[in-house]
Amino acid sequence: MKIATYNVNGVNGRLPILLRWLKEQAPDIVCLQELKAAQESFPAAALRDAGYGAIWHGQKSWNGVALLARGRAPLETRRGLPGDPDDAQSRYIEGVVEGIVIGCLYLPNGNPAPGPKFDYKLRWFDRLATYADELLHLDIPAALIGDFNVMPTDLDVYKPERWKDDALFRPEVRTAFQALLAQGWMDALRALHPTGRIYTFWDYFRNAYARDAGLRIDHLLLSPALSGHLVEAGVDRHVRGWEKTSDHAPTWIELADHR
């Protein structure tokens, strides 16, 4: 089973790119972030024609997350991260596909830091940690997948010294990510590539992709009930080189039979 995450940076504007990648790679489960589309504007019909059922949590112009499954529709189990009933941003959707609970998330960017946006990011991270711990205690196959807007270590950023004050790399954020792993979640890509410089995002500016000046901010975290089935992980970085593409590349894992 192949599971992927992809920040599409506008699902309607990048729909030809998304459909091209889905046809090329045929992942079984896909988490999308940054839809930038209202609920009624999500291209469900086009994705259905491509063979994918979907659930989604849209928001006009900003944010938005979706969960796709090849040949079926995911069974929705949660819409929105618990812990703050007043949070109106569309950043979390969860569903079950083939017995796996998939939490698709788009963690806040948090810049500028310090400031209100960074405070919101840390609060959101706290809510995620609380809920993630609850998921682990269910002892079920589960994954938290998406754009975490965190570079966990120096290995995950092309020039760490340039990012020390950025909200994606500040110590508070990296500590929060490591606390998730300490609960028992596995960082799948890093587990299979412990020393590799592997990036998932390249800015549009300063020729970043050609220079390989990248960041690893898209992550797939696996529960203990699932992590033992991990066999491969990687990034479809060539997709970042396509014309009119997202600034992220699809990031994926392959699992052996988890049942």
From TrEMBL:
Keyword annotations of the record: Hydrolase, Magnesium, Manganese, Metal-binding
Entry superkingdom: Bacteria
UniProt record, GO biological process: DNA repair
Residues that bind Mg(2+): N7, E34, D147, N149, D247, H248
Record CDD domains: ExoIII-like_AP-endo
Residues carrying the site annotation Transition state stabilizer: N149
Site (Interaction with DNA substrate): H248
Cofactor(s) the protein needs: Mg(2+); Mn(2+)
Top EC class for this record: hydrolase
GO terms for MF: DNA binding; double-stranded DNA 3'-5' DNA exonuclease activity; endonuclease activity; metal ion binding
Active site: Y106, D147 (proton donor/acceptor), H248 (proton acceptor)
InterPro entries associated with the record: AP_endonuc_1, AP_endonuclease_F1_BS, Endo/exonu/phosph_ase_sf, Endo/exonuclease/phosphatase, ExoIII-like
Marked site positions, Important for catalytic activity: D218
Manner of cofactor binding, per the entry note: Probably binds two magnesium or manganese ions per subunit.
EC code: 3.1.11.2
Transmembrane segment boundaries: none
Domain Endonuclease/exonuclease/phosphatase residue range list: 4-248
Entry similarity comment: Belongs to the DNA repair enzymes AP/ExoA family.
Protein's name according to its UniProt entry: Exodeoxyribonuclease III
Lineage: Bacteria, Pseudomonadati, Pseudomonadota, Alphaproteobacteria, Acetobacterales
